[in-house]
Amino acid sequence: MWTTFWRIIFPLLAPINATVGILTCLWAWNDFLLPLVVLSSPSAQTLPLVQYVFQGQFSTNYTLAFASYLMALAPMVLVYLFAQRWVISGVMRGSVK
Known about the structure:
- This is Raffinose/stachyose/melibiose transport system permease protein.
- The protein is mostly helical.
- It is 74% helix and 0% strand.
């Protein structure tokens, strides 16, 4: 039964697994509230918490903020480019009858 699952069903689920992987990576990478509550040491802060420093009540340092946003965006773009093959194949399989 497990051999049937791993050889027949699991390859058909590759687009779904890629989509879930992309969404899980995005959720973990962009998590803000849990690290804000849990972490107290400035050296252990995650990237979204460090980016929060650039926004003040009365001023925002836009040049540093947008540079850090681009640097934070790069790993997620690489994850998407890696998993894009499976997502597009799933869309194409669903459109052909």
